[in-house]
Fold:
Amino acid sequence: MQLIYEQSVPGRRGVRLPASDVPPAAALPATLLRKERAGLAEVSELDLVRHFTNLSRRNFSVDTNFYPLGSCTMKYNAKVLENSAALFAPYHPMTALLPGGVALCQGTLGMLHDLGKMLADITGMDEVTTQPLAGAHGEMTGIMLIAAYHAARGNRAKKKYVVVPDSSHGTNPASAAIAGYEIITVPTAPYGDMDLELFKKAMNDEVAAVMMTCPNTLGLFNPHIKEISDIAHSHDALMYYDGANLNAIMGKVKPGDVGFDVVHVNLHKTFGTPHGGGGPGSGPVGVKKELIPFLPQPRIVMDGDGTFQLEVTNPGSIGRTANFFGNFGVMVKAYAYMIMLGREGLIQVSEQAVLNANYIKEKLKPYYDLPYDMTCMHECVFSASKQLAHGVHAIDIAKFLIDKGYHPPTVYFPMIVKEAIMIEPTETESKAVMDAFIEVMIEAALTAESNPQALHDAPLTMPISRLDETKAAREQNVCCAW
Ligand SMILES: *Cc1c(COP(=O)(O)O)cnc(C)c1O
Structure:
């Protein structure tokens, strides 16, 4: 397949605009003008449409293939949710910031307010801000709220540390470090959760927060979570809940009920928005009432008569963390998703996600090493260590799956599992789809024994075969690779 630049023919155009009948504006300063042409491809409209349509057909997506990418939750993205977001297009929430604008977008503000209420209900929090633009951004916002909380009590200098388990997503320690904290990492015990005894040793009065993902990135729910939060609180540390795995416990457990004080939710994982390719995401943050005074502004508040106002007079606020109240379209989709499924439907999502993951785990257990062999939640983590005995790595199995029409599961994460293969089927896949995937995973395991070279050679059916990753890193030539 040719690059779009290789299809370029000088003078060819997709669109020809009529001559402008508007008087030219004042000339731009010469320093802002290009010295030479931009070098864009010159193609016809059809060349352009075909080029990008063909490229899109070479993509894996939830709409084309089973996509069991653990931790990322590539789930059900109903088209009706896209339609709902499009309905709101003329009612941008920024309207509220214009003079008299609040009256013009009561529906939009009401939707955001309701969404916050529903998320607060699901997570057991007292109030939610929708501003953060992704999970990682939510983490940073949440840790900034925790810092503001300690500062208001005169403890900002004293509280220096954030505790994270070693199974945590890399964004957890990164966000806490950006927010100004030093990180204490607690190892995972053989039972698959943060080692309770080591955690107790790590805790002291200088700890500002404990960040946990529950279920964690091994797909395991920590049975000691209440005890952990009680210990944290006894040291005046707050509990931060990374909600990326909320789709495993939605409607079953509220993080607020087991002691968490701050929660972020990835709307693009749990609530029906497609993601990958860089977004957009949305990472609303919920807090217990003690932290409400520090929430980002403006807050949407409801007056006694049911109208919505913007509150911007909060002196303790950490300020704005994003424009436009966050990624508004993603919030409309999450709202529509929740309304569409209702309370019972959301509970069913969690139940089905957990059932599906356990089904795959049990079926593949005879073929792949399962380092933490217990009932999992929404995802299960295997290791390719058995296959390694034949020289086959997790990456070889991933590439083999591509040839068979599957997006590979997450590999090499969580980092505490050697040769990790992290499978998350999500809730909407049928048994037939999962059975077909299981068969291909078994085929990969058998091929690792009988013909390991076949796995090293994969993928053979893709436009690009196996890349030499070392060479790619050393000689970075991103142009004309094939
Ligand atoms: C995805 C993920 C994050 C980060 O969320 P983004 O929206 O990608 O920034 C954090 N923690 C866990 C466990 C995740 O899976």
